[in-house]
């Protein structure tokens, strides 16, 4: 599909990309960039949360070893 035929849906209304102003196209680009950044940050947060759980488990293990 050519760029002129691509559509975007905003608030349940479809628009042809080719019919949008340059400003609107720039805002779409900005939104796509920010959505990508949010996805990356969510992935990094998931990694950090997994590491946190592992460190908590290691700490519990280290504390129980010291009690015995």
Explain how this protein is built.
This protein is mainly alpha-helical. The chain has one domain (3-67). Helices cover 68% and strands 12% of the residues. The protein is built from 1 helix and 2 strands; from the N terminus they run ββα. It has one helix spanning 22-67; strands at 7-10, 13-16. The chain has a two-stranded antiparallel ribbon. Strand 1 (7-10) and strand 2 form a beta hairpin. The radius of gyration is 23 Å and the shape is rod-shaped. The termini are far apart. The relative contact order is 0.07.
Percent helix range = 55-70%
Mean pLDDT: 92
The radius of gyration over CA amounts to 23 Å
Q: Biggest sheet, open or closed, and with what strands and sense?
A: 2 strands, antiparallel
Sheet/helix structural class: mainly alpha
Q: Helix and strand string, N-terminal first?
A: EEH
